[in-house]
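Appendix C reproduces, verbatim, an entry submitted by the partner laboratory led by Prof. M.T., so that reviewers can inspect both the input and the predicted structure.
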Amino acid sequence: MAELERKIAIIGASGMLGHALSGVFQHAILLDFKPSDSSIRYVDITQLDKLEEAFADFGSNDWVINAAAYTKVDLAETEAGGLQSFRVNVNGPENLAKVSRSTGSKIIHFSTAYVFDGKAGLYIESDERYPLNTYGKHKLVGENPVLDVGGVVLRTDTLYGPHGENFVDDIVIANARRRLAKGIKTIEIVRIK
């Protein structure tokens, strides 16, 4: 039986999720807006012409995994952050869908639970999406072009891991530093039973 050759590319390979995925897909083409080492090539998903160049030799057996995202939820509410969120979380997936349409390659796109309002708790794919903030709205809009070309959308919540920004650094350590700067020597953490 002939073995089909397949290419896999990971966009956002310098981030926590992309880094973890590169360990799973060890022969993947690694791409990022801010390459963290020489194994990662530069690509900006907000620039269609650069994406078209990067995936010119991709075809219907090939996959693009989009782990790139603007994830600064609070900053997305500012003018500058909102613009950057729109570019990466809306324009980026739109561009990937255009490349998918022209090359026949398939997309796996990571989105977020922020596309829901949080009132129902656990969600399923068919639940109504109703984001409450700019980040969630942008991620929701970015899902549609991917789905329109038959792509796969995976929604996740907070990521935990050793590479890139993470819960421990963002919440625990940053909170501890803020509290210590104010002379407070304790940290309060909510425990759910």
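Strands lie at 8-11, 29-32, 40-42, 63-66, 106-112, 152-156. Additional entries are available on request from the coordinating office.
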